[in-house]
Amino acid sequence: MGTDRYAYQSRLRRVSPLPKLLLTAVTLAVCLCCNSVAVGLATLAVMGVLITALGGLPAGVFLRFVRIPLVFLAVGCVTILVHLYPAGTPVLAALPVGGRLLGFTAADLTLSARLFCKALGAVGCMYFLSLNTPVTDLTMALERLHVPRLMVELMELIYRFIFVLGETAAHIRLAQESRLGYRGLRRSLSSLGTLASMVFLRAWRKADRVYAALESRGYAGSLVTLGGAYRPGWGLCPLTAALAAGQLALFAVERRLFP
């Protein structure tokens, strides 16, 4: 997985996951509660700076990951932005469709812009955590926070089986490509259908073998792992407070300028 590969390369890798989790949770909560264009964009920018300055990852890595959810966010915001209105409704832009207007008003534009920027800010917060904290460190932090053990175990097993599913799909697709299974639209659709039907069956069998291997090694409902030697990293706490204060100040200024 790309995020885990970069998380192990991050300079924050050996920092305790608890301060990183705190920073992510606080900035994410403030960003979502503010529902602001400026706060969302500022949160995204600050998280990018932290990933590159503190984590030591190239800026291109962060930008490449940010591009992934942009399509989904754009499609979701367009569905909120565009509506059908009766003829004569004051709108900013519209197209006549069967005696009605397909367009958007100023309120629709404001709502979709706030939603889009808020979601981008949330994505930036989650990328700060995922690009600087491997999943194994995160699950250990959740255990220390007394998250129910069953939930943590399910997270670990599901995360492991993501790789099982991906590896199985990659092997099936490679076999299909070696037999020219994706030459032409009709053959490609047929191969894709076969891939979809076979990947879950084979992944299920492989997952069952993995579970049997765990039981043969003494698995009794919990995965026992050794904790890492972390640096305290509590210097991130003042940074968390400063970021939250900056978000709230920016929100207050935006509401004063654009009530």
Protein described:
The protein has 259 residues and is mainly α. The protein has two domains: 1-134 and 228-259, no CATH class; 148-225, no CATH class. The chain has nine helices and three strands, in the order H-H-H-H-E-E-E-H-H-H-H-H. The chain has a three-stranded antiparallel sheet. Strand 2 (93-97) and strand 3 form a beta hairpin. Helix 3 runs parallel beside helix 5 (106-130), helix 4 (59-81) packs antiparallel against helix 5 (106-130) and helix 6 (135-144) packs antiparallel against helix 7 (149-178). The mean pLDDT is 86. InterPro entries: ABC/ECF_trnsptr_transmembrane, Cobalt_transport_CbiQ, ECF_CbiQ.
Throw out a few tags for this protein:
3 strands; 2 domains; Cobalt ECF transporter T component CbiQ; mainly alpha; 3-stranded antiparallel sheet; ECF_CbiQ; transmembrane helix; 5% strand; 259 residues; cell membrane; Cobalt_transport_CbiQ; single chain; 9 helices
List the helices and strands and how they pair.
Layout (H helix, E strand, L loop, with lengths): L1 H8 L7 H18 L2 H17 L5 H23 L1 E4 L6 E5 L2 E5 L1 H25 L4 H10 L4 H30 L6 H32 L19 H22 L2
Antiparallel strand pairs: 1-3, 2-3
Helix pairs in contact: 2-5, 2-9, 3-5, 3-9, 4-5, 6-7, 7-8
Query: Percent of residues in beta strands?
Result: 5-15%
Give the strand order of the largest sheet, numbering strands 1, 2, ... along the chain.
1-3-2
Mean pLDDT level: 86
- Please, how many domains? 2
Count the E strands. Answer: 3
Order of helices and strands: HHHHEEEHHHHH
Distance between the termini: 43 Å
Transmembrane segments: 21-38, 44-63, 70-88
Protein name: Cobalt ECF transporter T component CbiQ
Keywords: Cell membrane, Membrane, Transmembrane, Transmembrane helix
Subcellular location: Cell membrane
